[in-house]
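User: Sequence recovery, please. Input:
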Protein backbone atom coordinates (compact mmCIF):
# COMPACT_ATOMS: atom_id res chain seq x y z
CA UNK A 1 0.00 0.00 0.00
CA UNK A 2 1.41 3.38 -1.02
CA UNK A 3 1.82 6.16 1.51
CA UNK A 4 -1.04 8.67 1.37
CA UNK A 5 -0.06 12.31 1.79
CA UNK A 6 -2.18 15.26 2.92
CA UNK A 7 -2.41 16.41 -0.69
CA UNK A 8 -3.71 12.96 -1.69
CA UNK A 9 -6.56 13.26 0.82
CA UNK A 10 -7.59 16.53 -0.84
CA UNK A 11 -7.50 14.82 -4.24
CA UNK A 12 -9.91 12.22 -2.91
CA UNK A 13 -12.11 14.99 -1.47
CA UNK A 14 -12.05 16.54 -4.95
CA UNK A 15 -13.37 13.28 -6.42
CA UNK A 16 -16.05 13.06 -3.71
CA UNK A 17 -17.35 16.49 -4.71
CA UNK A 18 -17.38 15.27 -8.32
CA UNK A 19 -19.51 12.27 -7.39
CA UNK A 20 -21.92 14.48 -5.42
CA UNK A 21 -22.19 16.76 -8.46
CA UNK A 22 -23.23 13.82 -10.63
CA UNK A 23 -25.82 12.73 -8.06
CA UNK A 24 -27.30 16.24 -7.89
CA UNK A 25 -27.46 16.45 -11.71
CA UNK A 26 -29.35 13.17 -11.89
CA UNK A 27 -31.78 14.49 -9.27
CA UNK A 28 -32.34 17.70 -11.27
CA UNK A 29 -30.67 19.93 -8.66
CA UNK A 30 -28.45 21.69 -11.17
CA UNK A 31 -27.11 24.55 -9.09
CA UNK A 32 -26.20 22.16 -6.28
CA UNK A 33 -24.39 20.11 -8.91
CA UNK A 34 -22.47 23.19 -10.04
CA UNK A 35 -21.60 24.11 -6.45
CA UNK A 36 -20.02 20.68 -5.97
CA UNK A 37 -17.83 21.30 -9.03
CA UNK A 38 -16.83 24.70 -7.64
CA UNK A 39 -15.91 23.09 -4.31
CA UNK A 40 -13.95 20.44 -6.20
CA UNK A 41 -11.94 23.23 -7.86
CA UNK A 42 -11.10 24.67 -4.44
CA UNK A 43 -9.98 21.22 -3.24
CA UNK A 44 -7.87 20.87 -6.37
CA UNK A 45 -6.22 24.25 -5.77
CA UNK A 46 -5.51 23.57 -2.09
CA UNK A 47 -4.23 20.12 -3.07
CA UNK A 48 -1.56 21.80 -5.22
CA UNK A 49 -0.56 24.14 -2.40
CA UNK A 50 -0.26 21.23 0.04
CA UNK A 51 1.82 19.24 -2.43
CA UNK A 52 4.24 22.14 -2.90
CA UNK A 53 4.53 22.78 0.84
CA UNK A 54 4.59 19.26 2.28
CA UNK A 55 5.47 17.18 -0.75
CA UNK A 56 3.36 14.56 -2.49
CA UNK A 57 3.37 10.78 -2.58
CA UNK A 58 4.49 8.61 -5.49
CA UNK A 59 0.91 8.29 -6.66
CA UNK A 60 -0.04 11.92 -5.97
CA UNK A 61 -0.09 13.12 -9.56
CA UNK A 62 -2.03 10.07 -10.71
CA UNK A 63 -4.62 10.56 -7.95
CA UNK A 64 -4.93 14.21 -8.91
CA UNK A 65 -5.55 13.32 -12.56
CA UNK A 66 -8.16 10.68 -11.70
CA UNK A 67 -9.98 13.07 -9.37
CA UNK A 68 -9.94 15.80 -12.03
CA UNK A 69 -11.43 13.38 -14.55
CA UNK A 70 -14.41 12.80 -12.27
CA UNK A 71 -14.94 16.40 -11.14
CA UNK A 72 -14.04 18.47 -14.21
CA UNK A 73 -14.87 16.15 -17.09
CA UNK A 74 -17.53 13.58 -16.20
CA UNK A 75 -19.46 15.75 -13.72
CA UNK A 76 -19.79 18.77 -16.09
CA UNK A 77 -20.78 16.46 -18.96
CA UNK A 78 -23.50 14.82 -16.86
CA UNK A 79 -24.72 18.32 -15.94
CA UNK A 80 -24.90 19.28 -19.63
CA UNK A 81 -26.75 16.06 -20.50
CA UNK A 82 -29.21 16.62 -17.65
CA UNK A 83 -29.92 20.21 -18.66
CA UNK A 84 -30.11 19.92 -22.44
CA UNK A 85 -32.40 17.77 -24.54
CA UNK A 86 -32.10 16.00 -26.90
CA UNK A 87 -28.84 14.52 -25.63
CA UNK A 88 -27.95 13.13 -29.08
CA UNK A 89 -27.35 16.69 -30.33
CA UNK A 90 -24.53 17.10 -27.82
CA UNK A 91 -23.10 13.58 -27.90
CA UNK A 92 -20.30 14.10 -30.48
CA UNK A 93 -19.07 17.19 -28.65
CA UNK A 94 -19.34 15.54 -25.24
CA UNK A 95 -17.27 12.62 -26.51
CA UNK A 96 -14.67 14.98 -27.99
CA UNK A 97 -14.44 16.78 -24.63
CA UNK A 98 -14.17 13.44 -22.80
CA UNK A 99 -11.42 12.06 -25.06
CA UNK A 100 -9.32 15.23 -24.99
CA UNK A 101 -9.70 15.48 -21.21
CA UNK A 102 -8.46 11.90 -20.83
CA UNK A 103 -5.49 12.58 -23.10
CA UNK A 104 -4.64 15.78 -21.22
CA UNK A 105 -4.88 14.14 -17.79
CA UNK A 106 -3.02 10.99 -18.84
CA UNK A 107 -0.03 13.04 -20.00
CA UNK A 108 0.07 15.32 -16.95
CA UNK A 109 1.85 12.94 -14.51
CA UNK A 110 4.59 12.37 -17.10
CA UNK A 111 5.48 16.05 -17.43
CA UNK A 112 7.99 17.88 -15.27
CA UNK A 113 6.66 20.49 -12.86
CA UNK A 114 7.19 24.02 -14.20
CA UNK A 115 5.67 27.47 -13.80
CA UNK A 116 3.17 26.83 -16.58
CA UNK A 117 0.83 24.16 -17.95
CA UNK A 118 1.20 22.69 -21.43
CA UNK A 119 -2.33 22.70 -22.79
CA UNK A 120 -5.36 24.18 -21.07
CA UNK A 121 -5.85 22.59 -17.62
CA UNK A 122 -8.91 20.35 -17.44
CA UNK A 123 -10.29 22.13 -14.31
CA UNK A 124 -10.42 25.44 -16.21
CA UNK A 125 -12.21 23.81 -19.15
CA UNK A 126 -14.62 22.00 -16.83
CA UNK A 127 -15.49 25.19 -14.95
CA UNK A 128 -16.27 27.03 -18.19
CA UNK A 129 -18.57 24.22 -19.36
CA UNK A 130 -20.26 24.17 -15.95
CA UNK A 131 -20.87 27.92 -15.93
CA UNK A 132 -22.16 27.99 -19.51
CA UNK A 133 -24.58 25.18 -18.67
CA UNK A 134 -25.81 26.85 -15.46
CA UNK A 135 -26.27 30.23 -17.14
CA UNK A 136 -28.47 28.47 -19.72
CA UNK A 137 -27.00 30.22 -22.72
CA UNK A 138 -28.00 29.12 -26.21
CA UNK A 139 -26.66 25.61 -26.98
CA UNK A 140 -24.57 26.93 -29.87
CA UNK A 141 -22.37 28.82 -27.39
CA UNK A 142 -21.91 25.71 -25.30
CA UNK A 143 -21.13 23.50 -28.29
CA UNK A 144 -18.69 26.04 -29.78
CA UNK A 145 -16.97 26.46 -26.43
CA UNK A 146 -16.60 22.72 -25.96
CA UNK A 147 -14.92 22.37 -29.35
CA UNK A 148 -12.49 25.21 -28.57
CA UNK A 149 -11.79 24.06 -25.01
CA UNK A 150 -11.22 20.47 -26.14
CA UNK A 151 -8.73 21.62 -28.77
CA UNK A 152 -6.89 23.84 -26.27
CA UNK A 153 -6.52 20.99 -23.76
CA UNK A 154 -4.46 18.92 -26.20
CA UNK A 155 -2.60 21.89 -27.69
CA UNK A 156 1.03 22.84 -27.00
CA UNK A 157 0.04 26.30 -25.77
CA UNK A 158 1.34 27.32 -22.36
CA UNK A 159 -0.96 28.55 -19.60
CA UNK A 160 0.29 30.09 -16.33
CA UNK A 161 -0.24 28.47 -12.95
CA UNK A 162 -2.46 30.62 -10.72
CA UNK A 163 -0.54 31.74 -7.64
CA UNK A 164 -0.40 34.52 -5.06
CA UNK A 165 -2.92 37.34 -5.36
CA UNK A 166 -4.48 35.79 -8.46
CA UNK A 167 -5.20 32.61 -6.52
CA UNK A 168 -6.89 34.68 -3.80
CA UNK A 169 -9.06 36.45 -6.39
CA UNK A 170 -10.00 33.11 -7.94
CA UNK A 171 -10.87 31.72 -4.49
CA UNK A 172 -13.14 34.70 -3.74
CA UNK A 173 -14.89 34.46 -7.11
CA UNK A 174 -15.54 30.73 -6.74
CA UNK A 175 -16.81 31.05 -3.16
CA UNK A 176 -19.08 34.00 -4.05
CA UNK A 177 -20.51 32.06 -7.00
CA UNK A 178 -21.18 29.04 -4.80
CA UNK A 179 -22.97 31.23 -2.23
CA UNK A 180 -24.84 33.70 -4.44
CA UNK A 181 -25.64 31.28 -7.29
CA UNK A 182 -27.72 33.08 -9.92
CA UNK A 183 -28.97 35.82 -7.60
CA UNK A 184 -28.39 39.52 -8.37
CA UNK A 185 -28.74 38.97 -12.13
CA UNK A 186 -26.16 36.14 -12.06
CA UNK A 187 -23.35 38.64 -11.47
CA UNK A 188 -21.08 36.19 -9.61
CA UNK A 189 -21.12 33.36 -12.18
CA UNK A 190 -20.74 35.89 -15.00
CA UNK A 191 -17.68 37.44 -13.32
CA UNK A 192 -16.18 34.01 -12.75
CA UNK A 193 -16.81 33.05 -16.38
CA UNK A 194 -15.24 36.30 -17.63
CA UNK A 195 -12.19 35.72 -15.43
CA UNK A 196 -11.78 32.23 -16.87
CA UNK A 197 -12.12 33.53 -20.42
CA UNK A 198 -9.46 36.18 -19.74
CA UNK A 199 -7.15 33.45 -18.45
CA UNK A 200 -7.80 31.25 -21.49
CA UNK A 201 -7.37 34.05 -24.05
CA UNK A 202 -4.43 35.93 -22.55
CA UNK A 203 -2.68 33.13 -20.62
CA UNK A 204 -0.57 31.92 -23.57
CA UNK A 205 0.50 35.50 -24.38
CA UNK A 206 1.54 36.01 -20.76
CA UNK A 207 3.62 32.84 -20.79
CA UNK A 208 5.26 33.82 -24.06
CA UNK A 209 6.13 37.30 -22.76
CA UNK A 210 7.45 35.84 -19.49
CA UNK A 211 9.69 33.33 -21.27
CA UNK A 212 11.14 36.10 -23.45
CA UNK A 213 12.13 38.04 -20.32
CA UNK A 214 13.91 35.05 -18.78
CA UNK A 215 17.49 34.78 -20.12
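Assistant: Recovered sequence (215 residues):
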Amino acid sequence: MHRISKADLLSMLNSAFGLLSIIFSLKGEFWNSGIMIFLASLSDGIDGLMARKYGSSEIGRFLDSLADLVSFCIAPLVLVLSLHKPALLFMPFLLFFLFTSILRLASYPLKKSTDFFVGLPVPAAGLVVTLLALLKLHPIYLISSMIILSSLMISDLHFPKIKGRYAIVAFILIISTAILRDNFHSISPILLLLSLLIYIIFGPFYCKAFKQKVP
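The chain has a mean pLDDT of 89.
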